[in-house]
Amino acid sequence: MADAPIIDCLQYANWSEKIFHQLHDGGVDAVHVTIAYHETFREVVLNLETWNRWFEQYPELIFAGRSGDDVRRARQEGRTAIFFGFQNPSPIEDDIGLIEICHTLGIRFMQLTYNNQSLLATGCYEDDDTGLTRFGKQAVAEMNRVGLVVDMSHSGKRSTLEAIDASSRPIAITHANPHWWHPALRNKCDEVLRALTGAGGMLGFSVYPHHLKDGTACTLSSFCEMVAEAAERYGVEHLGIGTDLCQDQPDKIVEWMRNGRWSKQTDFGEGSAAAPGFPKQPDWFRDNRDFGTIASGLQSAGFSSDDVDAIMGGNWLRFFDQSFKAEAS
What secondary structure, in 3-state letters, does 192-253 show? Predict the structure, then answer.
């Protein structure tokens, strides 16, 4: 399909003019950008100020995305629509009213947890997953009402299943891979993925090395064969890309991602016994200019052109159209 977009549903890059040009060169029409891990509401506002300055400086390359139509506009104009999301609910603090305020400010995704227990649900690194809290259930209902997508990428199994069940709208796991392909703690089991997709939700495949079979040495063919197996199990219409690309970030940022302010100890995280740092990307996906390589790999794995288009962005666009507007009253 000639008008099929390329959408990456999760990046946490060290943003710069260089990366904005790479988005353009790679034909990336939209990207979901993390603007909070452990930030407070006020700190998120400061991050939005930074992005507003970038929108002013590089209007020929990027602009703020709010709807699926902004993806279409980006494709028509040769720019990239930037969609904002939280990897933790910390910006809403303990105030359910901030959910609507955040949506008004342009936030379109919010994880109910990062790796730890939150006020809403349990993260995947906790020993005991107690599911959605009372606040969590009400937060999901409010997110559904205003059009803020529930993202369970870093949540535990029970919490994720309960979020799928509690949500009146399909939810997303924006950046993870199947546990049956690579048993990383962050990857999702078959039961969760069947529940997610059975309820109309979306899975974004990650190319972050800790989520890949064989890590940095993972081959493109192995990755694409995994996508093909997932399509057989869950249906191609529920699959997309969420690279979790952390391009040009200094290693100290990993400490903020994993430790925030909650710990004095080093949380090594995601299978690493050494000091935390970013692993090297596989050679077939180093930056935003490499999306065509993934598309070619999917074709080699047996996907039709229409299915490749769907996975590379068409499915996310449909999801955006359905998810970002307030529920009809």
Answer: HHHHHHHCCCEEEECCCHHHCCCHHHCCHHHHHHHHHHHHHHHCHHHEEECCCECCCCCCHH
Q: What is the DSSP letter of 314?
A: I
Residue 1's pLDDT band, with cuts at 50, 70 and 90, is very low
**Nearest-angstrom CA–CA distance, 110 and 217:** 31
Burial of 8 (0-12, 13-18, 19+ CB in 10 A): buried
Q: List all residues 6 or more positions away from 151 whose beta carbon is below 8 Å from its beta carbon.
A: 85, 87, 109, 110, 111, 112, 171, 172, 173, 174
Query: How do residues 255-286 score in pLDDT, each as one tens digit?
Result: 777 788 888 877 655 544 445 688 999 999 99
What tokens appear for 255 in the block?
A: 């400490």
| CA–CA gap between residue 145 and residue 130 (Å, rounded) | 25
85 with 10: CB under 8 angstroms?
A: yes
Distance (Å, rounded) from C-alpha 284 to C-alpha 207?
10
Percent of the chain predicted with pLDDT > 70: 96
Domain 7-323, second-level architecture: Alpha-Beta Barrel (3.20)
Q: How far is CA 115 from CA 6, 122, 127, 259, 277, in A?
A: 28, 8, 11, 10, 17
**Where do the domains of the chain lie?**
7-323
Q: What is the pLDDT of residues 209-245, one digit of tens each?
A: 999 999 999 999 999 999 999 999 999 999 999 999 9
**pLDDT tens string 158-206:** 999 999 999 999 999 999 999 999 999 999 999 999 999 999 999 999 9
Residue 259 and residue 313: Cα distance in Å, rounded?
32
